[in-house]
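Quick log. Single chain, no ligands specified.
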Amino acid sequence: MNTLKIIQFSTCILLFFAISSCQSDDSEAVINLENTEKLSDIIANRTVETGAVIACAASDANNSDIVNVYYYLEEGASNVQFFETNTANVDKNDYTNYRRLAITSTPLFEGYIEQFTRSFGEDQWVIVTYELNDEIKLSNPIRTKNISKPTVWTNEITINQETSKMPLFSWEHNTNGDNAIYFQIVSTVDNGLLSGTYTNENKFQYYDTSNVVLNISEENPIDLTINNSYKFTLMDVSADNWVNTVIQDIFVAQ
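-> predicted structure:
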């Protein structure tokens, strides 16, 4: 039987990664970046790989002053650092513009994803780094846009469950402009990660990787259980790694 379900808005589950929108003590701190280390100094005379840390950022669902910076931590990585500029009106590729900010990250989805949370009063540039195999790995610059283009949060997703235990998720393409790639997470309702994938297309089928361009999860995740509830999360990511749209909702496997 062909089951086509258009998910309707439900405020009780408008939570991304089950994170509270409350600010942390770190995000409330008054920070003078001029007194902290420059990224250019830290990477001097070191082996560096740019674009090696998968990362993006989104404004909070309930408070656009708050930005969550998400990144994928490779096994064995250490010494994670967070760097930011004082303004967006600088050369994003000039590492002298980035200063280290001493804040800690929080593991999500059983540690597959990590998150920094920070209050931003204006648009800025952010870079996440860590060390692995005697190299310093850098993310591409992330343009925070919580002031100029806050992340849109919704749960308008179409789920086709014609193939049992292999739901096909689809969504409107580039609804808020500037799309570069889509990131999908299928998880248990309590955020146990089942799959984490990237596609260029505005669709993903669990678990068909024919259109997947990057996979951060196990290649063969567990089968869905019929009548069990699961969570689907979608991030529409721009070329400068800002999340334009977050789609998230609960579905029942058929």
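Residues 1-31 have pLDDT under 50 and may be disordered.
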